[in-house]
Amino acid sequence: MHVMILVLFLVAGMLVGGAWTAYQQGSKAMTVVASLLAAITVVAAISWMVGAFGK
């Protein structure tokens, strides 16, 4: 497994945690931004993983 895929999943996890913290603090804008970035990161990691294992 590529290290970059693991890094992307770790970053996505941190972003989800940041989104949850922002949600608890009542910051709607930061919640949306962190959630979107987390979703993009997860999609990128899964896409990369599928491409890496498809070879």
Notes on the structure:
The protein has 55 residues and is mainly alpha-helical. The chain has one domain. Helix content is 89%, strand content 0%. It is built from two helices and no strands. Helix 1 packs antiparallel against helix 2. The radius of gyration is 13 Å and the shape is elongated.
State mean pLDDT (0 to 100 scale): 93
**SSE succession:** HH
Number of helices: 2
Provide the low-confidence segments as ranges: none
Q: How would you sum up the global shape?
A: elongated
Tally of DSSP β-strands: 0
* Class computed from helices, strands and strand pairing: mainly alpha
The overall number of domains is 1
User: Alpha-carbon distance between the termini?
Assistant: 12 Å
Radius of gyration: 13 Å
State the helical fraction. over 70%
What summary fits the major beta sheet?
Answer: none
Beta content: under 5%
